[in-house]
Design goal:
D-Maltodextrin-Binding Protein, domain 2; 8-stranded mixed β-sheet; 3-stranded antiparallel β-sheet; 8 helices; 11 strands; globular
Length: 273
């Protein structure tokens, strides 16, 4: 056998071995997330408004908050690098459908209408839609007293439609915290409808506000993915279950709220649909 023929045979054998190794590698690990349709390979890119403190907000040029920590923990469970990004809440669902990011981990509540456009995981926390007024306000004792009043709300949130049903005088904001801040200024607003958690957090931070009655409803904040990316939805559900089971979820929730946001008595409570 000539030296040239021997070299060609050795080269062919080497290529076959390398090819087989490459296939084994794809099947066993490095590309184990290839079944997910990710906008950036090896990363879980998840969106939020960045204006919903303490769930998600920017401080020192860095995204922080409960949603961010949950997203980071989910990413770790999936073997992906976390890549949190911001998008205005008013168009955040459109951005997901437009493949700007893989998921929304930004306190988006499940509704039947939203579920027509995207897939929702099991809830990663519960919160209530609540009316807040200035602490000195004595005119508004219940939601029924909001007729004709000026209500502050973030557009396209679950609080938008109920506000429209209660009053035709709506002031729109891109941040619940800004709306609540305006509520502390005489003459700006009569009330704000937002999450009970966000409202109570603002009161703890010195906002001169008070809640009106009980929450109007309880909503299920979930992770949202595109309909065609159901493998990712299933994997995130599994990751959430593991985070709850191993205590990571409770640790994150205690860090931000000194309580577990999933530990809620839902008996007899209206769940937002």
């Amino acid at each position: 056998m000539s030296k040239l023929k021997m070299m060609l045979l050795l080269l062919a054998a080497t290529i076959l071995v390398l090819s087989a190794c490459g296939k084994d590698k794809d099947a066993t690990g490095d590309d184990s997330n290839q079944e997910y349709e990710l906008v950036k390979k090896g990363n879980l890119t998840f969106a939020m408004s960045g204006l919903y403190k303490p769930f998600n907000y920017e401080e020192g040029g860095k995204l922080m908050g409960f949603d961010v920590d949950i997203g980071n923990a989910i990413s770790e469970k999936l073997g992906l690098e976390p890549n949190p990004v911001t998008n205005p809440f008013e168009t955040i669902l459109q951005g997901l459908i437009g493949v700007k990011y893989d998921a929304i981990i930004g306190s988006m509540a499940y509704t039947d209408e939203r579920a027509k456009q995207a897939n929702f995981t099991e809830p990663y926390y519960y919160s209530g839609g609540m009316v807040f007024v200035h602490k000195d306000n004595t005119d508004i004792q219940s939601a029924e007293d909001l007729k004709g009043k000026k209500i502050g709300v973030v557009a396209q949130t679950t609080y938008d439609q109920p506000a429209q049903e209660l009053s035709d005088n709506i002031q729109y904001y891109n941040s619940d915290v800004v709306a609540l801040k305006d509520l502390t200024i005489p003459g700006r607003l009569d009330a704000v409808i937002t999450s009970d958690i966000v409202g109570f957090e603002s009161i703890e931070n010195g906002f001169e506000l008070k809640e009106v009655g009980q929450p109007l409803w309880v909503e299920k904040a979930s992770v949202v993915v595109r309909p065609e990316n159901d493998a990712l939805r299933a994997a995130i559900d599994e990751a959430l279950a593991e985070l709850i089971e191993d205590g990571t979820y409770d640790e994150i929730s205690q860090k931000w709220f000194n309580r577990n946001l999933l530990d809620v008595d839902l008996e007899g409570v209206e769940i937002l649909k």
